[in-house]
Amino acid sequence: MSQDTIKSPALAAVIGSPVRHSLSPTIHNAAFRHTGLDWLFVVWDVPSGLAEDALQAMKTFNLAGLSVTMPHKTAVAEAVDQLSPEAGKLNAVNCVARQGDQLVGHNTDGAGFVASLKADADFNPEGKSCFVAGAGGAGRAVILALAQAGAARVGIMNRTPAKAQAAADLAGEAAEIADAEAADADAIGNFDLVVNATPVGMPHFAGQTPFPTTGLHAKQLVVDLIYQPWETPLLKAARAKGIAALNGFGMLVHQAGVAFELWTGIPAPVEAMTAAVSSKITVNSDQQPHL
């Protein structure tokens, strides 16, 4: 994107359904203001099945960028002109950027996760042993990113063996599949990083944790990708043991930061983006906002 294009007024949007509670406008409009860009970020509620129409509208109205949330991530991956390597491996797109007259689909979740580890916990996955519970969209992005960041081991736990194997394929030789029915607390204690990418920990799970916590110890970093509620039972148990623990808020902001940089070519003002969205997060809310 040229400097003249960056300085010109521009429009970006998020598509999804439902998408009214999206935090993306708060995050990105704060970034635009902070960097002096005359850009505006808006919400487009696009029903399921109309992702291709939304991409055509992006071309027609010359949108500078598009964020993508449920239920469109796979449909957009199948409809863009090109895919980044990560989006291709995941078959899921959460960000569309322009490259000339081409629309390129990206997946920024994994890069955002790794960036949040480094920024918020000074943790570099290279050479480390990492455990991920969950092999859905977020879990797969995290597993791929950890492997690409040079993790020595990526343990994967999922109650559906086929999903666990598909996620393991993303991590290559670093992958290890754990038995979800016999999750061993001591085995989980053998990892440097422990990540929950399942919904277990949200209010309707009534205080459950995704795996036993008795083997967790203070030399580990524990991350729960849930950020509503702000402190899940897993994070509470970890902190009670003196373990460094993060929720998914950092990943939320940093994945948006990666998208901002793809659209503009400008380093993302992460502190300004964090400050803006912090006021929108209700610490005790039961609802997980959309990105």
Number of strands: 12
Q: What's the CATH first level of the largest domain?
A: Alpha Beta
Report the CATH topology name of the largest domain: Rossmann fold
Superfamily at the CATH H level of the largest domain?
NAD(P)-binding Rossmann-like Domain
Question: What global shape is seen?
Answer: globular
Structure description:
This protein has 291 residues and is α/β, with parallel strands linked by helices. It has twelve helices and twelve strands. It folds into two domains: 3-107 and 251-278, Leucine Dehydrogenase, chain A, domain 1 (Rossmann fold), CATH 3.40.50.10860; 110-247, NAD(P)-binding Rossmann-like Domain (Rossmann fold, 3-Layer(aba) Sandwich), CATH 3.40.50.720. The chain has helices spanning 3-7, 24-35, 51-60, 73-79, 85-90, 109-121, 137-148, 161-171, 185-188, 233-240, 249-264, 270-278; strands at residues 10-16, 39-45, 65-68, 82-83, 95-99, 102-106, 129-133, 153-157, 175-178, 193-196, 221-224, 244-246. The strands form two sheets. The protein has a six-stranded mixed beta sheet with strand order 2-1-3-5-6-4, sandwiched between helices. A six-stranded parallel beta sheet has the order 9-8-7-10-11-12, sandwiched between helices. The longest helix has 16 residues, at 249-264. The chain starts with a helix and ends in a 13-residue tail after the last helix.
Can you describe this structure in just a few lines?
This protein is 39% helix and 19% strand. The protein has 291 residues and is α/β, with parallel strands linked by helices. The chain is globular.
